[in-house]
Structures are given as C-alpha cells and as structure tokens.
Amino acid sequence: MEERPETELISIPATPRASTPEILTPSGQRSPRGGGGHTSTGASKDAKSWTPTSFISPRFLSPIGTPMKRVLVNMKGYLEEVGHLTKLNPQDAWLPITESRNGNAHYAAFHNLNAGIGFQALVLPVAFSYLGWSWGIISLTIAYFWQLYTLWILVQLHEAVPGKRYNRYVELAQAAFGERLGVWLALFPTVYLSAGTATALILVGGETMKLFFQIVCGPLCSSNPLTTVEWYLVFTSLCIVLSQLPNLNSIAGLSLVGAVTAITYATMAWVLSVSQPRPPSISYEPISLPSYSASLFSVLNAMGIIAFTFRGHNLVLEIQSTMPSTFKHPAHVPMWKGAKVAYFFIALCLFPIAIGGFWAYGSLMPSGGMLSALYAFHIHDIPRGLLAMTFLLVVFNCLSSFQIYSMPAFDSFEAGYTSRTNKPCSIWVRSGFRIFFGFVSFFIGVALPFLSSLAGLLGGLTLPVTFAYPCFMWVLIKKPTKYSFNWYFNWILGWLGVAFSLAFSIGGIWSMVNNGLKLRFFKPN
Fold first, then answer.
1. Where is this region: Disordered (predicted)?
2. Of 173, 179, 221, 514, which has the maximum CB count within 10 A?
3. Which residue, 284, 297, 262, 314, is CA-closest to 122?
C-alpha cells in the first residue's frame, strides 16, 4: 500500500480561543489543517436553541473542579471555533503556496502591493498618448474600479462552498466551469501571468541594471562592459538565490521591499518628470495615424496596455490561502482589509504616473515608457544620483516581484513531484526546480527579447483572468436569482470582458506587426 503522510494528532488547545488543527510542514512550520467554511444558512441564531456545546454552561461547570472545568471550557471553544472542519488535501502541507498558513492582513497588503505595482505602470503614459486626456482618464478609472470589484469577488469565492478552500485560481475555475473547461480557460492566462511575467521581469531588470551601471560609472567604465544578455544572466542569478525561500509566507519581507520600492520609484518617476521643463514641441493631441483602421487598432492596443497594468488577480486566491480560516475568523476578512490598503496605494501610484507622465511628455512619450523618457530627455538635467536611485529601485522591485510571480510555477512543479512520489520535496529537489525555472525564463527572454514590448497583446490575452472570469464564476457558484440585477450585472460585465479581450488582442497583434517587434522598455546600446 502507498505510504500516507504522517500528521500530528489533533489536540485540544490550552487557551480559551482554540486554533485550527495543525500539521508539520517540510520546512518545519505549522500549517493549520482546518480552513474556512460556512455554516448552514438555515441555522438559528437564537441563544436559547440547543447546540452541541450548550450543556457546557457555567451552571453545569460550577460543581466541577478546576482542571476538569478548564478542559470542558477549552473543548467548548474548540468546538465553536472548528465546528465546520474544512477538508484539505494532505498534499497541500508540502506545497509552497499552502505550506504555511500563518498569514495576516499585513502580509496580504504586502503581497497585493508587490503583485499589483510594477514595470507595467511605467508604460501607462504611452496609452494616454494614443487616447488623449479624456479617454485615457476614463479608461483608467473604469478599469481600476472594475478590477477592484472582481478582486472582491475572488476574495469572497475562496470559501464559497462549505468545507472547501479554493487555494488556486485554476481550482476555482474548475469548480465554476467544470474540470476540463476550467483548465482550458484558466491555465494558459495564469501560466503566462506567472512564467511570462517572470521572463519580462528578467528583461526589464537586466536592462535597468545595465543603465544603472552606465549612469553610476559614466566614462570611467571599463572598455569591455557587460552586454545586455550578460546583465540578464546576472539578474537571473540574483533571482534564483532569492527564490530559495521555501513558501509564499516566507517572502512577505521581500514583498514589503517590492511594495516600498515600487511606490518610491513610481513617485520619483512622475515627480522628476513634472519638475523639469517640458519639451518645446509637446502636444497633447492623440497621435494621428494615416488611416482610420490604423488609428482604431492603436486605440485598442492602448486600452490593452491599461488592462495589462492591472495584474495580480491570478495570485489573489494563492495569497488568501496562506491565512488561517475558521468559522469565527474567516480568511476573507483580513484578506479584504489588506487588499483595500494595497489598492489604495496602487491608485496613488498609477493615476499620478499616467497623468503626470503624459503632462510632461505628451505625444513625445517614448514607446518604452517613463524610464525611457527620463533617460532620453533629462539625462543631463537630473542629478545622476537621483536618476541612478530610480533605476536601482526598479531593480529591487523586479527582484521582489519575480519571487511572488514565480511561486505558482514552483507550486506546480512540486505538486507534480509530490503526487508521483507521495512525499514532500527535499531541499535539493526544491532548489533544482527553482534553478531550472529561473534559467528557462532566462533562455526564453534571450530568445524572445521583444516580450516586454507586447503589453497590449498580453493585456488582451490575460484580461479575462482579471475582468471576465470572476464575474462568470460568481454567477455559476453563488447562483444569484435569475434575471435579478446581480445576475444581469455579472453576466454583462463578464461578456464585456471577453469582447474587450478579443479586441485588445487584435489591436496588440496589429501594433506588434506594424512596429516590427521593435518596441522595448529601453533602447539597447
């Protein structure tokens, strides 16, 4: 017979408020076995109604000695706290996403900030150069509140079915759309948002390291500087070293660093831009193209860039799964608190960088975004120290973001290994998987160096994960009253998301073909 993973025996806690049962994970951390669930909606809240613990009353306990009284009180708290034990796969205790369930609202804020702000925000002014002031601001505002609503949906659906926690986006898609259709619909966009974003981060991080070195060194640099590919390799090596942290909770510190650096460099980018004199030939009229079709596809591509700015929904369930959840303290409460704080700061970064960047450069905005504009227009106006610090913060943010976006890929590798061997990954196996993933991402980046320029196309292809699928999943799992406002609202939003996905993808393909894949975040030397 197959060996079964050993777990610790469930014990009655020694405190009045009991915690969930635990098991010992491979990294030595304790992971609660009980997740969150829901009581039956028909359960009475009348204090006089009988419950399994109603016999443990002060009057009943009064003649009993102190030790027995303490045991019974603890048992009462335990039964009330864990009266709805969630069925978890024991294999989850071996996987990096669900290995540790000690997260909290602070960790949720750090992770969501790190996942939600990144290099994609730097190209928002490029979208404005094709949309103009009015449509640029309207599109960004609608996209922000739309994705905030779908984020709330995902947080609520994490424990939508009593006794079940959906720890990964694909799991929730399978529950809503069916086993096969859920995989077909959700697997590609979530894999790209994990592996593809990791590859794009290597490109952006490596190129930023090269620019940082050029700014700091200046003419004193050696006659044989590192090539762009060699800088990619340096950045990849740093990512692999940091990726040895075992699980999602263990990178909370890195996510905090990523969040702080993202907020700082986004603020510095637009503040430095608006504080300098604007180019004399600046114009705020949308870029005009020779034909109507060309203008239409450019607008669609610009809206795809805005859609690509709002990433991170593929990690929402994974972040929430790192939190303990009980009937009295469900995981969605701290998760939503952390998410609200995170997206407040995300708004404070995205709107100023889009508006300030477009105000500073107008239609002259380079296709690479804000950093390219700073380097092209103000390399001699801004103190080298400030410019170098901005680029260094981008490097730190890319290193931190690589870890959280790679975690689903690490989780998939280890899930395949543990399902075949029925044992957790050793340190060497886990390290091997992460080294393999890092260098595969590096080779993809070298083979497809234009990947970072496909923001419009990739925004269209991955848009359903953020804007469409959550609305469909809400209707299919929560089953609101047919033809009610809730029912119509989510169906309409979902199908609008699918239509925009197709339109933005077409616009991205048109832009990619007509620009010959030459768009880059930085112009290579």
1. 1-50
2. 173
3. 262
The pTM for the full model equals 0.80
Q: What is the pLDDT of residues 124-157, one digit of tens each?
A: 999 999 999 999 999 999 999 999 999 999 999 9
Q: Indicate whether 75 belongs to any domain.
A: no
Question: What mean pLDDT is reported for the chain?
Answer: 80
The answer to whether residue 433 is domain-embedded is yes
Task: For residue 245, give the 3-state DSSP assignment.
Answer: coil
Band of residue 70 on the pLDDT scale cut at 50, 70, 90? low
Quote the strand ranges of 37-171, DSSP E: none
In a domain, residue 414? The reply is yes
**HSE-CB of 347 using CA atoms within 13 angstroms:** 14
pLDDT confidence tier of residue 326, bands split at 50, 70 and 90: confident
DSSP string across 301-348 = HHHHHHHHHS--GGGHHHHHTTS---SSS-THHHHHHHHHHHHHHHHH
Give residue 314's domain range. Answer: 104-515
Q: How far, in Å, CA of 371 to CA of 378, rounded?
A: 10
Highest mean pLDDT among 59-68, 73-82, 130-139, 374-383: 130-139
**Buried b / exposed e across 312-324, counting CB within 10 Å, b at 16+?**
bbbbbbbbbbbbb
Return the closest-CA partner of residue 36 out of 332, 249, 318: 332
346-387, pLDDT tens digit by residue?
999 999 999 999 999 988 888 778 888 887 888 788 888 888
pLDDT digits (tens, 9 = 90+) for 173-230: 999 999 999 999 998 888 878 888 888 899 889 988 988 888 887 766 666 788 889 9
Number of structural domains found in the chain: 1
- CA dihedral angle for residue 96, residue 97, residue 102, residue 104, rounded to 10 degrees: 140
Q: What does each C-alpha distance from 140 to 144, 273, 296, 372, 422 come to in angstroms?
A: 6, 20, 18, 22, 47
The pLDDT value given to residue 66: 64
Structure tokens at 465: 């994960």
According to DSSP, residue 32 is labeled E
d(CA 41, CA 53): 20
Judge residue 431's burial from the number of C-beta atoms within 10 Å of its C-beta, 0-12 exposed, 13-18 middle, 19 or more buried: middle
Residue 498 neighbours by CB distance under 10 Å = 16
pLDDT single digits (tens) 457-473: 666 777 899 999 999 99
Q: Which two tokens stand for residue 255?
A: 């996510």
Helix spans in 62-123 (H): 66-81, 105-116
Residues 6+ apart with CB under 8 A from 333: none
- CATH classification of the domain holding 204: 1.10.4160.10
* 391 contacts 371 by C-beta, under 8 angstroms: yes
Residue 12 lies inside a defined structural domain of this protein: no
Amino acid at 345: F
Question: In this predicted structure, what is the pLDDT of residue 223?
Answer: 64
Q: Of 291, 299, 287, 357, which Cα lies nearest the Cα of 129?
A: 287
